[in-house]
Design goal:
By secondary structure, the protein is of the alpha+beta class. Helices cover about 40% and strands about 25% of the residues. The protein contains five helices and four strands, in the order αβαββαβαα. It has a four-stranded mixed β-sheet with strand order 1-2-3-4.
Length: about 160
C-alpha cells in the first residue's frame, strides 16, 4: 500500500509542477523604452503629462495588438540638452488594465528627473525670465560637510 501511495503522490506532484511550468511559459510580458524630446520652452509638468499620455497609448496598443501579452512595462526617458533621464515607469497586467486604465496607479515617477533634466525654480529658465538674480551662498567647509554626511566615519 505504501508503494501505491508514493507513486500516487509522485504523479500528483509531477502534474502540479508541469501545470505550473506550462502556465508560466504561456505568460508573455513586454518591456519597452521610449524617449521624449523636450524643448527648452516646455515645463516639467507638461513633459510628465506628455509622458503619461504616451504610456497610456502605448499600453493600450500593446494589449490590443498582442492578445497573448499578459503584462506590459514601459519606461519613458526624456532627452533635454543631450541629457537623457528616466521620467516614469509603468507596469501593468492585462487584467488590471481592463479593470482600471488610469495610468497613475500603475506608474512610478522618478523624482530626481526634474533636477537632472535642468528644470529649476518653477520651470522658468533664465533666458525666459526678464532678469535673473544670482544669490551667493557660502559653501560649507569640506571637513564640515563630510562630518554631516550620514556615511562619514572617523576611525
Amino acid at each position: 500500500m505504501s508503494l501505491h501511495r508514493r507513486l500516487f503522490s509522485a504523479c500528483i506532484l509531477a502534474t502540479v509542477i508541469f501545470t505550473a511550468s506550462v502556465s508560466v511559459s504561456l505568460a508573455e510580458t513586454k518591456e519597452s523604452y521610449l524617449t521624449l524630446d523636450s524643448d527648452g520652452s516646455q515645463s516639467f509638468a507638461s513633459l510628465v503629462q506628455q509622458a503619461e499620455d504616451l504610456v497610456k497609448e502605448s499600453i493600450a496598443r500593446e494589449f490590443q495588438e498582442n492578445p497573448a501579452l499578459t503584462e506590459v512595462t514601459i519606461i519613458i526617458t526624456a532627452d533635454r540638452r543631450r541629457q537623457r533621464v528616466p521620467v516614469l515607469r509603468s507596469r501593468v497586467s492585462r487584467h488590471d488594465w481592463q479593470k482600471d486604465a488610469r495610468i497613475e496607479q500603475w506608474t512610478r515617477y522618478f523624482a530626481d528627473a526634474q533636477l537632472l533634466l535642468g528644470f529649476r525654480d518653477g520651470n522658468i529658465s533664465p533666458r525666459n525670465s526678464g532678469s535673473s538674480q544670482v544669490i551667493n551662498v557660502p559653501a560649507p567647509s569640506r571637513a564640515t560637510s563630510r562630518e554631516n554626511d550620514p556615511g562619514f566615519r572617523d576611525d
